[in-house]
Amino acid sequence: MSLGKFLVRRILQGIFVIWGAITIMFGLRAVSPGDPASLMLAEGATQELIEQVRREEGLDQPIYVQYFDYLQGIVTGDFGYSWQSNREVEAMVIERIPATVELAVAATIVAVAIAIPLGVISATRRNQPSDYGATLFSLLGISTPNFWLGLMLILVLGVWTGVFPTGRRPVGLGEAAMTFAQTGSPGDLFTWLRYITLPALTLGTYFTALITRLTRSGMIDELGKPYVTASRAKGLPNVLVRYKHVLRNTMIPIITVLGLQMGTLMGGAVITETVFNWPGLGLRLIDALDTRDWPLMQGIILFIAVAFVVINIVVDALYSYLNPQVRE
């Protein structure tokens, strides 16, 4: 199968997944208890006013009519208005995207910086204390709930020692970078770094454990192949063989997992953002759930679904380019 046909098939599958997410969210709204018109108004609104809102919002129409109207709005870029703030949903989603992306990227950097060295050490020193330590770390990382780890980091590194702040960040990465470019002062960058450290460690812990185990298994598999023996027989240093050849061949599946996990991190940052009051999509989603703001919830879930699908398609395209056998 050609690369073009492969991408077309993956895009069609992605569109189907996005449509499924939209349909499920709309179905949940339809079966949820309560009158949406009442949620849009203040407590104590008259029945006449509630009926007027129902007519204006099309809530008095059959459910299938509401569904197709909602699909038409999404296709045309109209995601509706928040029931609580009366703001455009797309604007409320877009303004929170940078914070979520910053946290996901920072968590990925933390995971890679810790996991790959641990995986290499564990693979090259099998059945030694360092290998057991890396394995134990992976087990703890996968088993530890993110919310508990976040609270412990806040307690130890925030409250007891005061090394890192625990509240909402005062400046974003874009603002800090712009200030640095204009004034040459790195103060805002350091402030942003201090605020993102604990959330990135919390979100990246599970990811770190996964990449450590993947690196270890990949390295062990590569170390047993004939080209490694031939390279050592030629007198190449072990460090050169280990990092230039073995680790390089191991990185292909790791890069694939990194790309796929980026989508997972963006969707899975809800708990971490809530614990650290991080102003991203996850925290806004929790606020929307508390107020039953369905248009806002649908907009956030739709963005996460689209981001996940796009990341998966890009990773599949890169991987199929590097390894054409996956297209078969």
Shape: globular
Structural domain tally: 2
User: What composes the largest sheet?
Assistant: none
> What count of helical segments does DSSP give?
15
Number of strands: 0
Which structural class do you get from the secondary structure elements? mainly alpha
Q: Bin the helical content.
A: over 70%
The helix/strand order is: HHHHHHHHHHHHHHH
Under the CATH scheme, which architecture of the largest domain would be assigned? Orthogonal Bundle
Describe this structure in words.
The protein has 328 residues and is mainly alpha-helical. The protein folds into 2 domains: 144 residues, no CATH class; 182 residues, MetI-like fold (Orthogonal Bundle). The chain contains 15 helices and no strands. Helix 1 runs antiparallel to helix 15, helix 9 crosses helix 10 and helix 14 packs antiparallel against helix 15. The model has no long low-confidence stretch (mean pLDDT 81). Belongs to the binding-protein-dependent transport system permease family. Its main location: membrane. It is a multi-pass membrane protein. Pfam families: BPD_transp_1, BPD_transp_1_N. This is Binding-protein-dependent transport system inner membrane protein.
